[in-house]
Amino acid sequence: MNIRKSFALALAIMTAAALLLTGCGKKDDALAKIKERGTLVIGTEGNWSPWTYHDESDTLVGLDVEIGTLIAEKLGVKPDFQETDWDAILAGVDSGRFDIACNGVGYTEERAQKYAFSTPYVYTHKVLVVRGDNEEITKMEDLKGKTTANSPGSTYAGIAEEYGATVTSASTLDQTIELLLEGRVDATINAQVSIEDYLSQHPDANLKIVQVLEGDPVAFPMAKDAESLVNAVNEILDELRKDGTLSAISEKYFNLDLTKND
């Protein structure tokens, strides 16, 4: 082997080794960046009561807003809530636009392949809802060939499609209910707490729950490579769980303690 070839081979080996060492030594600086910036950027809808919504004074409030604010404070930074449509929230986490999503996001194995999730902070049940005068749909199997209203890309939309329904896009709960009441869709699958909250505020609404489905863990999605942030959030949630804060917030917004999966 001549000198030129030997040098080229040595250089290639050194370059490969350097790249390998750089990759192995790559630091997870997600939490450090947040602390340096001084804000936790939180993606949320702002129109899904009682999770995240605007009160009569147009202040952003809700269970996710309150917990997200506590997480930011305990990290030593300020919360920066950025409102967007549901189908842009996870994409925002994926692109780095948001550090975390606080929006009642249900944990699924499919989502967990792309995002890192915190430990669950509440568990929710899904319900199948129809108009009060609908006698054709009484269970999920009856959705075949029917139409539902749901946020595109949501867990609920996916379930409706699995049962053979055609999903009409609705970006807010109010829009979902409007489509249902006007007869433009046959049903919706939604969070029981959200539907119960709506019915408590609109007791004369021509709606009925025909089936309650199993409970789901709800957690905060973050970027896959943000392990430092995930660990910090989990420590905070553990603290809030142990001192009763999570239960109190759940009772405040849902009149139920949904922090336990039972």
Chart the SSEs and their pairings.
Blueprint: H1 3-24, H2 30-37, E1 39-44, E2 53-54, E3 60-61, H3 63-75, E4 78-83, H4 86-95, E5 100-101, H5 109-112, E6 115-117, E7 122-131, E8 147-150, H6 155-162, E9 166-169, H7 173-181, E10 187-191, H8 192-201, E11 207-218, E12 221-223, H9 227-242, H10 245-254
Parallel strand pairs: 1-4, 1-5, 8-9
Antiparallel strand pairs: 2-3, 6-12, 7-10, 7-11
How would you describe what is shown here?
It is built from 10 helices and 12 strands. It has 262 residues and is α/β, with parallel strands linked by helices. The chain folds into 2 domains: 30-121 and 219-254, D-Maltodextrin-Binding Protein, domain 2; 124-216, Periplasmic binding protein-like II (D-Maltodextrin-Binding Protein, domain 2, 3-Layer(aba) Sandwich). The strands form 5 sheets. A 3-stranded parallel sheet has the order 4-1-5. Helix 6 (155-162) links the parallel strand 8 (147-150) and strand 9. The longest helix is centred in the N-terminal third of the chain and has 22 residues, at 3-24. The radius of gyration is 23 Å and the shape is globular. The relative contact order is 0.17. Residues 1-25 have low confidence and may be disordered.
